[in-house]
Amino acid sequence: MNKHYDKIILVFVVIVTGALAAVWIPDYLGLKTKFQVEEKLSGVALFGKASAEGIQETIDHLQRDVKWVTPTLEGVPQKPLPLTRSIPIWLQNDKEIDLLDPDAPKIRPPLDNSWALKNGDSVGRNDLLTLDEDNDGYTTLEEFNGGKTDPGDPESHPSYSTKLILSEIKEDAYALIYRTGDNPDGEFGVREEATRYEADPPRVPPRRKSHFLKMNTDFGTHPGHEDRYKITAFEKKTAAGGAGGIPVPAHLLTIADKTSGKEFKLEYKKPKLETIYYAVIDFQLSGSESKLGPFKVGGSFELSTEAGVKYEIIELQGTLEKGVKLRKTGPDGASPQDIAISAGKKND
Fold first, then answer.
1. Where are the beta strands (DSSP E) in 61-163?
2. In 104-192, which ranges are continuous DSSP H helix?
3. pLDDT at position 234, please?
4. SS3 content of the chain, % helix, strand, coil (to 5)
5. Rounded CA separation 60/54 (Å)
6. Does residue 280 share a domain with residue 266?
7. What is the pLDDT of residues 278-306, one digit of tens each?
8. Exposure check for the chain: N or C terminus, fewer CB within 10 A?
């Protein structure tokens, strides 16, 4: 009888399996019908009707910058920490510096740690300030100081005007000197003297000429001063200061200037000097270097890198220290911008 145990067990398993199948199969066959019904249900039926207010609330929730405030620890200030990203830490002299902390020491001053990190720069590089990784002609320091532009994007850089440097001041001088004459019915001796800065090719040479003039006679031969002046009045005067207390001549001529439409006084043997200054400006953008000028007040120029943009000289004091003021006018009627530059310094 022991030989039939295996057959008996097999029959029992078959009977149990059949019973279970009879119970499970109906439920299984009903699943498809159940799911088909649910598939036909709309989103409105499942989630309710959407509204603009509800949608905006969902968007705001997804965009919310959720931060975790550190627990209170003795001697450790609390600060919010982002939950979705790690904290960039720089180790300097065995001290941990949080690159996102605006109050942390600057690793490469004057750069902000967070700005350098955001723009992909390694704050630990010793040459970081002088790098030009996008080859746009501006170093990392210039990009930071020039508006915090992107040092990794050649299309993002400071204004080209920051590459303008005042390199030299030239000058022309013109003088009128009242030399002789004290009789309004006679002639007065007036001399023109002029100097001009050296140029290549040479400009019209300076002229020095003495005129012997009666009242109301036009005179002037220097370029820009031709027949510009006329003696309109004479005043005979003396002043103390001669040897032995003898008075010396201090006569005055009144000169009318056609160019300005005004009159001025010309004192005996005291030159009236008129100086015209010219600015020489260097454009120091790598690959586009050029020397511009000389330009006097009213002169203008354009840069090869900025089509349609004009720079006009509006103020020139005559020394490198006092610099020069330019007026930048952009294309399409853009609002003018005044820029001051001086020797060896970029625009303010």
1. 67-69, 80-82, 89-92, 95-98
2. 113-118, 140-145
3. 97
4. 20, 30, 45
5. 10
6. no
7. 999 999 999 999 999 999 999 999 999 98
8. N
Using alpha carbons, list the distances in angstroms from residue 141 to 73, 83, 90, 131, 137.
Answer: 38, 32, 20, 8, 12
Q: What is the DSSP letter of 108?
A: S
Cα–Cα distance list, 173 to 29, 117, 191, 341 (Å): 110, 55, 14, 24
Give phi and psi for 178, each to the nearest 5: -85, 115
The whole-angstrom separation of Cα 262 and Cα 67 is 73
Torsion angles phi and psi, residue 59, rounded to 5: -60, -45
Does 243 lie in the same domain as 208?
Answer: yes
The whole-angstrom separation of Cα 37 and Cα 34 is 5
Q: What is the pTM of this model?
A: 0.65
Give the span between the Cα atoms of 324 and 168, in whole angstroms.
11
Residue type, 76: V
Q: 325 with 261, same domain?
A: no
The answer to whether the CB of 169 falls within 8 A of the CB of 277 is yes
Residue 20 is which amino acid? Answer: L
Chosen domain end from 158, 185, 215: 158
Q: Which residues constitute the domain of residue 306?
A: 162-168+276-341
**Domain match, 175 and 261 both:** yes
Q: Cβ(246)–Cβ(215) under 8 Å?
A: no
Cα–Cα distance measured from residue 102 to residue 8, given in angstroms and rounded to the nearest whole number: 83
Q: Which helix (H) or strand (E) holds 63?
A: helix 52-63
Say what the pLDDT of residue 36 is.
53
| 70 secondary structure, DSSP code | P
pLDDT, mean of residues 15-24? 61
Q: Which range is least confidently modeled, 89-98, 162-171, 237-246?
A: 89-98
Our measurement of the distance from residue 79's CA atom to the centroid of its chain's CA atoms, rounded to an integer in Å, reads: 34
| Measured distance CA(94)–CA(261) in Å, rounded | 75
> Per residue in 256-267, pLDDT tens?
999 999 999 999
**How far, in Å, CA of 166 to CA of 294, rounded?**
11
Per the document, the length of the chain is: 348
* pLDDT value, residue 1: 44
